[in-house]
Amino acid sequence: MIRFEQVGKVYADGTTAVDGLSFEVAEGELVTLVGPSGCGKTTTMMMVNRLIEPTTGRILVDGSDIATVDPVELRRRIGYVIQQVGLFPHRTVLDNTATVPALLGWKRARARARAAELLELVGLDPAVYGGRYPAQLSGGQRQRVGVARALAADPPVLLMDEPFGAVDPVVRERLQNEFLALQSAVRKTILMVTHDIEEAVRMGDRIAVYGQGRIEQLDTPRAVLGTPATPYVAGFVGADRGLKRLSVTAVEAADLEQPPVAPLGESASRAAARLRDAGARWAVVTDGGGALHGWVSAGALAHAGGRGTVGDLARRMDAWVPLGAPLKQAFSEMLQHDAGWVAVLDGDRFLGVLTPARLHEALRRSVDADARGLARDEVAFDSVPES
Ligand SMILES: Nc1ncnc2c1ncn2[C@@H]1O[C@H](COP(=O)(O)OP(=O)(O)OP(=O)(O)O)[C@@H](O)[C@H]1O
């Protein structure tokens, strides 16, 4: 846990970088600090590992006032990931990753084994990359090594300053997703600085939106996008904040449509008759246990001339998302597979489909629910006026 109590920093030349900061990052929580250049984000973060000393107030890490902890000792308990990564150029990837365990006095074999494990965790095969030097890696690979190194000594707290800033947007999104998956396993307490609101929304359990030297709003991404606390925050999150909500609004069971379902073994003629009666143009195909197999069109069933089973005519269904995935992922699957709907699964069990109309509905209900302080399932489908 990291706790700021009335923390301020005035630099020697009289610049007030931050003033009266009081907030907490709970254990296992990831808080993103976002705001324009020069608003005090980096100063805030660097005070936590005492690379910068506050002029007023105090900061507690896991209950102890860090002013009373030896800075070197403190930094060993706090992983630090920075944009320039800061790998040692003349040390191999494995040795770079093992830096902190080595400083902590671990035996060489143990430190290297731990480093190899961490490289594996961030998606770098230690047998391939462990012996390379930083210059022999791509930008994205270097960033992964930076993350592996910060995690190597298993510190409870991580500070990340624009950790994915130096790579192109595609690699950045992949690294962000990988890091989120990693975080759901390791549950570190994290402060992450970014100037990119998209990144803040995607990564943060909560977002602190900075104005000049102070926090204007500290809340969940949904709340910041849905009900910005001040005109400044509204301006900062942008006019397209409705679109950004796609990233933070989950697919729920109530959003789904239930098309006809045909099991693999059903005869084509029976399925054709059912679809005709239902006026449906296609059906979802499941195996005997309710798992998604694919889909079949009414046309294909009708043309089969009464022969064969649904399984003979079924096509693959690649557009699917797990229940709870962000709406953005569902939308992206639709576009990528040029599909008019995506299947939604719980494990491999088919639950229903999300159509563009239902996606739009889910988004509008979520906006309405936030505005009224309700859960989404408390907002009736027809309560949202057509825009
Ligand atoms: N050593 C220093 N001496 C004087 N002023 C400083 C010093 N370091 C930072 N500042 C000033 O403090 C303010 C906050 O800087 P800080 O680096 O914390 O901002 P930031 O939000 O991280 O910005 P960026 O997104 O550009 O990195 C700025 O006005 C900056 O010019």
Automatic annotation (TrEMBL):
Domain ABC transporter: 2-237
GO MF annotations in UniProt: ATP binding
Keyword Transmembrane part of the UniProt annotation: no
Domain of life: Bacteria
Pfam families: ABC_tran, CBS
Domain CBS: 314-369
Keywords tagged on the record: ATP-binding, CBS domain, Nucleotide-binding, Repeat, Transport
Homology family: Belongs to the ABC transporter superfamily.
The protein, known as: Betaine/proline/choline family ABC transporter ATP-binding protein
Organism: Streptomyces zhihengii
